[in-house]
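Supplementary Methods. Inverse-folding protocol.

Structures were first reduced to a discrete structure-token string of length 258. This string, shown here, constituted the complete conditioning input.
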């Protein structure tokens, strides 16, 4: 697990699996945790790590309902989990999906846990909308669908950080997963572009946090990839640096989803 301070009020914790990022945001003595790492030892270390660095969270947020972003409650079972309305709808539509996916991936990686995932108290948040953090700061919540049918980006203007969920990754190509679509993905990229212009750091769901100019370059590459995917299907070239066997298999899934 890698821990990087990207601002005095923003700490990024990166899991050993898929470089999944959890982001602790803080203002006025209050902190929230966006998304989660995967492994039990990482989740077990999180409460002390965040408390020791002054980021003990008062609430959890998840950018979308894919199971690898929902594990915060394994580390903080008493905290409520805030999700966008589309994510709440998806969780209600298929209440066992996250638990099933977690079980399957745990089995694949030979991971055992003390207990099952209980999502507990879920709080649906209006998106677009605002969410208070401490006395003086409001986080902006922006819709981010296309990877799946749900999603939100969390914009923390007080520290110049944008948490986008599964977009703008330097290690993963645009992934049209179940419920997602190329059109909605492109609309999300168009919506994210002006937000990226306003921040110093973009934290994707997977991979290193980026400076603004790097995030804008990835955004351009992702727009080009999706254009080529719609035009040429399987023949679309993968973005430079992300043309690996694992990303090829995501690409094949994207072609099938067209
Ligand atoms: Zn993910």
């Amino acid at each position: 697990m890698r821990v990087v301070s990207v601002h005095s009020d923003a700490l990024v914790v990166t899991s050993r699996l898929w470089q999944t990022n959890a982001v602790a945001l803080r203002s006025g003595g209050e902190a929230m945790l966006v998304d989660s790492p995967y492994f039990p030892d990482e989740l077990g270390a999180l409460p002390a790590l965040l408390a020791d660095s002054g980021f003990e969270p008062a609430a959890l947020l998840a950018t979308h309902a894919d199971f690898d972003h929902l594990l915060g409650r394994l580390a903080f079972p008493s905290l409520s989990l805030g999700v966008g309305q589309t994510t709440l709808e998806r969780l209600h539509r298929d209440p066992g999906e996250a638990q099933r996916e977690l079980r399957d991936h745990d089995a694949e990686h030979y991971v055992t846990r003390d207990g099952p995932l209980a999502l507990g108290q879920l709080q649906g948040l209006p998106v677009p909308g605002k969410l208070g953090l401490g006395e003086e700061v409001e986080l902006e919540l922006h819709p981010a669908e296309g990877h799946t049918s749900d999603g939100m980006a969390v914009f923390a203007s007080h520290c110049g950080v944008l948490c986008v969920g599964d977009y703008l990754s330097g290690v993963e190509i645009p992934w049209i997963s179940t419920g997602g679509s190329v059109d909605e993905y492109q609309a999300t990229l168009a919506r994210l572009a002006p937000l990226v212009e306003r921040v110093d750091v973009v934290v994707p769901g997977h991979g290193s946090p980026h400076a603004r100019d790097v995030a804008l370059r990835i955004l351009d590459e992702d727009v080009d990839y999706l254009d080529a995917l719609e035009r040429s299907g399987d023949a679309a070239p993968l973005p430079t640096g992300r043309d690996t066997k694992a990303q090829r298999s995501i690409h094949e899934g994207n072609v099938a989803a067209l």
